Each structure stands twice: as C-alpha cells, then as structure tokens.
Amino acid sequence: MPLMVALLFLPAVFTSFFPGKIIAVSFVSFAIISFLLIQNRKAFNYEDFNARQTFYLFLAFNVITLLRGVPNIQDSTDVHVLLSNDIFVYLLYPFFLYFADLDLLLKVWKSLCTIGIIGCLITLIKPPTDGMMSFAHNLTFLHLFFLCTPFIHRKYLYLFLSIASFAVLWNLDRRSILVNYSMLVGILLFYRFLWHAHLRKLIFWCSAVTPLVLLVLGLTGVFNVFKYVERLNVGIETTAERKFNVDSRTGIYTDVFGELTSQNKLVFGLGARGKTATSLSNDENHDYWIIYKNGRSQTESGMLNYFQYGGFVGYLVYTMFFLTCAYFALFRSKNDFLKLIGIFLCFKYFYSFIEDQVSNNLATFYLYLLFGISLNKNFLNMTNKDVRHYLGSFFKSDFHLIRW
Predict the structure, then answer these.
(1) Quick check: is 198 in a domain?
(2) How many domains does the chain have?
(3) What residue numbers bound the domain in which 67 lies?
(4) Do 364 and 140 contact (CB within 8 A), yes or no?
(5) Which of 47, 73, 282, 397 has a Cα at 20 to 30 A from 238?
C-alpha cells in the first residue's frame, strides 16, 4: 500500500521539480499501479460490495467511451493525454473503490498520513504546474477525516479545522477548496438533524433533481444560475484578483452543448477526446493556443465532461452510479458515519455540475474511496458502536460519539 500511495503522489511531486513534464511520469506511475492491481486482484473482496450491476454498467460505458474516442485522436497531444490520463481515469480509477475494504482502507489511511503528508508538503513548498495537483487538492483525503470527527476525540476536529483553514487561506484563488470545507463544516454543524429520514430523502431528491432543472432552464434561456450568482454582491475577492462569484461556467456550458447540438450528438456525445469549439483556440496566450488549437477536450466540470463524451446517456450512467452510492449510504446503512458520507456525496453530485473535474489526480482517487465505502456491505452493517471502535483503531485516542 505505501508503494501505491507513493505512485499516486509521484506525478504531482515530479512536476513540482520538472514543470510540464507529466506525461511520461503519469503513464509509468499508473502503469505500475495497474500491474499491482492485476497481480493482487485476488486480495479484493468483490462480494462485499453492493450495486455490482450498476458498477459494471458504469465500467462498460467507460470502455465504450474510450473506444468511441479513437477517431477523435488528431495529433500527438491527443495520444499523450490518452496515455497519461484517459485510459487510467476510465479503466483504472473505478477499481479504486475496492480499496474501501475494512482492512485495506486502514492501510490506505496510514500510507496517506505518512507518505501522503510528505507529498502534500512537497507540493506546498514547490507547487506543481497542474492546479488539480496542488497541495490543497492532494490534501482532500481530509474530507473523509472530517466526517469521522463525530466518532473520535474532539481534538481531531480542531486539528482538521486548523489544517483546512490553512489550506483555504493558502489557496484563495481556488474557490472549490473553500466551498468543500464549508460544506463539510455545515454537515457537521447540522449533524443531529440528519437522523430524520424525511430530511435525508429531501436532501437526496433535491440534489438529484435541482441540477437538471437548472440545466434545462439555462439551456432554454429562462434562467442562468451562474449569471444570477455573479450579480450577487458577495464581496469576496481571491488572490487572483477576481470575485469569488464570477461566472466562469456559462462559457463552457455554451461550448459543450453548442458542439453537441451542431453535431447532432446530444444523446451519445462525442466520445473520449471529443473536442468543442472554444474562443480559447484563438487566444493570444501561446499556451492556450497550443492546448486548444483543435478545440477543447475537457472542462472544469466533472458532469459536463460526461455530457461532452457521452451525451445524455453519459449523464444518466454517471448519475445512476453516483446517486446509487449516495442512496446506499443514506438509506441502507445502520450507522451515522455512512449517513454523513451520503450527505456529502449528494453535495459532490450537485457540485460536479460546477467543479470536480474527473481527471488523473488524487482528488478523483479520494472520491472513489467514498463510493467504495458507501457500497461496502461491512461498513453499511456497522452500528455506531462498531464505527467508534473501527475508527478508534486508526485514531489512537480515547474516542467517543459526539452528539452535536
């Protein structure tokens, strides 16, 4: 497990010292991880996970999307991205959910708290060229630790709050860092209300339906939520000298759905590496022109990527998989820990329409760990007492369930 975590951090650390040199190191790192997974495939308890048909459907969609993307390869840049990002995101990352096993997860955590912290510190001192591999994004395993705090000693909550505050202040130009930690704090503050099944149902269905309603309203020109939020007087400016609520999403939604409509591919999408016309192709910035000269093949929004590559079918498949995980955590679990994870997954689903790009980085790895915990039968069948003892085996302290 330490070797695997080291390999996961290697691309971010490597590009800290060798800016832009990410293709070869990413391919080698994840090729080795793939080999290790295949070699140790019998160590995973596949039968311990629910919703296997939904998972296989999601995996099949990923394979088909990759194959459909072969005709989209136009130059060496596409080949490089395919080898260093796409094949791993679509074929390798889904299997990371099997690390959410009772024994394996503790080993992952221990490695993250040793090798992972070293990797985070290196990327803090020497930031990588890829923003999604920054210190704060590499540190997002802290999200899951936050959700553990009602079951462990309160001092850990103060520790995690201190680290999160530093990460937010250090990355004020990254709105998503602030939003994610704010949501985690909000979930913990209102933890006692989440025991009510009706409230959990309301949160689940609002998270599932609201993004689609807002999407339809935006595409039809009735109401643009991004423009509306931009007009609000938030009064927060980031270190990048832009307002916190600036609209940077209307353009990418216009690009993607404009391309899908013009090519009559709203149903099945463009396939992997499918590109959309964008004004950045004509940008005077040399780096932008090199990257987007043939169009834009990926955006900052995770869900929008699935629309781009798979159309409404891609949206439905990713939604089914994502919300199935949230559903099991919210309604099939016997403990509050999984319910907290379920609420957070509802938020992450909603937020995927704005941020959470699904790409080759540690934030995506951590997300699949959450998926795995939500589907693992052993975690679902734990009582609160079982959770306290399980987490206590990792957080060495006098632990107790804190009723907020």
Answers:
(1) yes
(2) 1
(3) 2-392
(4) no
(5) 282
Identify the burial level of 285 via C-beta atoms within 10 angstroms of its C-beta, where 0-12 means exposed, 13-18 middle and 19 or more buried.
Answer: exposed
Q: Hey, what amino acid is at 43? A: A
Query: By the 8 A CB rule, do 22 and 84 touch?
Result: yes
pLDDT in tens, 177-220: 999 999 999 999 888 777 788 999 999 999 999 999 999 999 99
Give, in degrees to the nearest 5, the angle at Cα 49 between 44 and 50: 160
Nearest to 21 by CA among 9, 11, 32, 7: 11
Helix (H) or strand (E) holding 29: helix 23-39
Gap between the Cα atoms of 283 and 370, Å rounded:
38
**Could you tell me if residue 400 is inside a domain?**
no
Six token digits for residue 336: 């509050």
The span from the CA of 182 to the CA of 148, in Å, is 16
Q: What is the pLDDT of residues 26-80, one digit of tens each?
A: 888 988 999 999 998 888 889 999 999 999 999 999 999 999 998 988 888 888 8
Residue 401 lies in a domain: no
